[in-house]
Amino acid sequence: MSNRLLSEQSPYLQQHASNPVDWYPWCDEAFQMARSNNIPVFVSIGYSACHWCHVMEREVFEDRQIAAFLNENMVCIKVDREERPDIDMHFQQVYQALHGRGGGWPLTIFLSPSLKPVYAATYLPPYSIGGMSGFMDVVSRIVTVWKENPGKLEDAGGRLLEFIGGIRHHVSGMDGPPEDIEKRFLNEVQGIYDPEWGGFSPAPKFPSTSIIDTLMVVGLLEQRKIALDMAMESLRRMASGGMHDLVDGGFCRYSVDSTWLVPHFEKMTCDNALLSATYFKAWRISGEKFMLDTALSTVEFMLEKMCEADLFYSSSDADSEGKEGEYFVFSLDEAVDAFVKAGFTHGQAYRMADHLSITTHGNFQGASIVRIKEGEAPDGLERAMAALKELRAMRCYPFIDRKIITAWNAMMISSLFLLSSTLPEYGTRAVRSLERLLDKMWRKGRLYHSSLPETDPVIPAFLDDHAFLVQALIWAFQHTMDRHMLEMAELLAQEALDRFFHNGRWFYSRQEFEIPAHDQDSACPSSSAVMVSAFMSLHSLTGNTRWMEAARKGLFQATSFMKGFPAAHGTAVYNAMRLKHGDIVIHGKPELLQKDWNRLTEPVVYPFILLSPEPGVSGYIICHGSSCTASVASVDEVLHEIRRIAAQLSALR
To answer: Which of 376, 393, 410 is the last residue in one of the domains?
Structure first.
């Protein structure tokens, strides 16, 4: 027997359609039912690739005794946090206000019938054990208190909402970023850097691409070797395996330990889009082939496993066959057998297994996650990886959430455009993907957030959808030299201003909840900071001062937070440096710009370069700030002029 979730678009909600819990999606019908019956509301938020969400489903939501109690005493609502990030953000802030620390998934929320929050938790076991409160005990207490003294819960929930409202309506100072913001950023990052394993936190460790990207720019502009060293070593460590899937390519969400060995095995489009771009930029700066190989294998994984009709799915699961990481790990015996079948002798097979950290006892629940040991690799590494991939092909691949998310697709498209400066075939893929995304998500003058490949979108876009799509359109304009792409970017940027900038600050959403946009980066760059960066590009490409005015307002809003915690605001720091140093815009004939794109945008020359087609120009014209050079004929002359500008800026510091 199924519940109301069977007809929902979200694959995550559909996974819960056969639970004995009488689930509702987030809808007015559920809220009306709670008010009519005067019973509390239980909201469970998760996503399809989340391991602990699956654990809680098996242990709690498939328990018929617990389900019967819930169905009798509460209205139960399931939310896919990828489909409705605004709802998730609202209740994550409720959790943080109650507990003084960040939450996670699954997120467990209890509300009064008037939707005031009364309790928040993450994963709960079905019954109390070892000092940890169990779900059934928590639910029973809430129901009892509600029946005996509902006013107590209503009052507490009301006070909590007032507190959160005060936080949300606080507006930061507008005095602008300090002149030495890059030095403050570098000093703080040095303080949190792990010199042994790279990265910028103890366990768990996230990729922190915003920090790494900004470190690379600090290293180039400030000639600070320590900044580049921290960025490159972190990237090398991450890509040696564990969190990085050396067999199929692509990166898992994060590492649960400090050595990048044991990941949470889900793979998400947003992470892989960002990491493929970061590794490519690192290759262009360092020249290390390892960085390029990592970027390319990540993109190829996305195209092979996570793409349908030129659009990218949201995520693949941590679990397969009901077990975390089952698809990803190997026993020593099966690995050695696979190597022998691939032509290795037994001795060579065991040496290769050892080099790949595949051992008798394993490094994860008795099996082994592949990670390359330091030192010279035995001959045949590529052949060994192919043998492991063939072994995996016989396994059940983890569940893939086929949801198409506008922001995450736009991130992946931008990465493809970036890589196309060296590998033109990715540019063709990027253009096709962008056209498909616009065709699907831009309907009758309105942008939408997500849908399945075969369904029409219904959820309006959020700030990150606008920000990352505008960024992708700017990339597309520079790749195709098609003015329509620039006009579309301006249209969406203006819509973002109209919908999400209000009373001097950015909001992520202004639908059921007014959710302020985070100035700090999380696993993804801050959507408001990305929007600011897009405004800067639009100003440089069009000369329209309204875009620079919007950029300054957005950047200055983040100033006080940026000053206090610059490492948490890497994208905003990047924008502050870009504002201070200024973009260099290279004008030229479209065919010349396209032919020489890779050399013209060399990051080691200057990190803030844009290309603008001018069909009537002879050669190239280089503009910086309010001045432009006379026309120059060759790429070498362009690069010489850019180095001259960069040297002048350096002398002024």
So the answer is: 393
Strand order in the sheet with 501-502: 501-502, 505-510, 514-516
Q: Which amino acid does the sequence have at 308? A: E
Are residues 614 and 601 both part of a single domain?
yes
Which residue, 350, 343, 320, 346, is CA-closest to 390? 343
Q: Which of 261, 249, 238, 243 is nearest to 359 (CA)?
A: 261
Euclidean distance between CA atoms 243 and 203, whole angstroms: 13
User: CA 206, CA 253: separation in Å to the nearest integer?
Assistant: 7
* Domain membership of residue 604 as a residue range: 584-652
639 contacts: CB under 8 Å, gap ≥ 6: 599, 600, 602, 605
In terms of Cα–Cα distance, which of 40, 3, 39 is closest to 20?
A: 3
In CATH, what number is assigned to the domain containing residue 553?
1.50.10.10
Final residue of a structural domain among 562, 581, 600:
581
> In terms of pTM, does the model score above 0.85?
yes
Answer yes or no: are the C-beta atoms of 450 and 459 closer than 8 Å: yes
Residues 6+ apart with CB under 8 A from 93: 164, 167, 168
- Mean pLDDT by runs of 10 across the 653 residues of the chain is 87 96 97 96 96 96 97 98 96 90 93 92 93 92 92 82 67 69 95 97 94 96 93 97 95 96 96 98 95 97 97 96 94 97 96 96 96 89 96 96 98 97 93 98 96 96 98 96 96 97 90 89 95 97 96 85 88 95 94 88 89 89 89 91 87 65
CA 354, 299, 438 angle in degrees (round to 5)? 155
Torsion of CA 90, 94, 95, 96, to 10 degrees: 100
Q: How far apart are CA 413 and CA 288, in angstroms?
A: 24
- In 3-state terms the chain splits into helix, strand, coil percentages (rounded to 5) of 55, 15, 35
Burial of 148 (0-12, 13-18, 19+ CB in 10 A): exposed
Query: Amino acid letter at 514?
Result: E
Answer whether residue 176 is part of any domain.
no
Cα gap 219→182, rounded to integer Å: 10
| Gap between the Cα atoms of 526 and 518, Å rounded | 6
The token pair at 337 is: 């057998």
- Other beta carbons within 10 angstroms of residue 630's beta carbon come to 8
One-letter amino acid for residue 100 of the chain? G
The answer to whether residues 312 and 430 touch, using CB atoms and an 8 Å cutoff, is no
Helix 545-557 to helix 527-542 angle, to the nearest 10 degrees? 160
Residues 6+ apart with CB under 8 A from 201: 192, 194, 208
For residue 175, being part of any structural domain is answered with no
CB of 42 closer than 8 Å to CB of 110: yes
Q: Decide if 79 contacts 26 (C-beta within 8 A).
A: yes
CA 140 from centroid of its chain's CA atoms: 37
